[in-house]
Design goal:
globular
Length: 65
Amino acid sequence: MNEPDLEAVKGVGFCVSIRHAEYMAEMFNQRGILSASMVSGLNEDTCAGRLNDLKEGEADLPVYS
C-alpha cells in the first residue's frame, strides 16, 4: 500500500472533549501532520482565522481536531 502524500491531506476530526481535541492535534503534530485544535475558549481572532482558512481551503494547518 502506498503512503499518502501528507502535503495533500486535509481533514477535520470531531472529538468528544477539549482534552481529546488537544491530544489528537498533538499526536498529529508529533507524526509530522501539522494540526490544531478548534475548541471553545479560543481567542476570537484565532478562531475566525482558522475557520476562514478551512473554508477557503488555504489552511497552513491541514488537520483540525
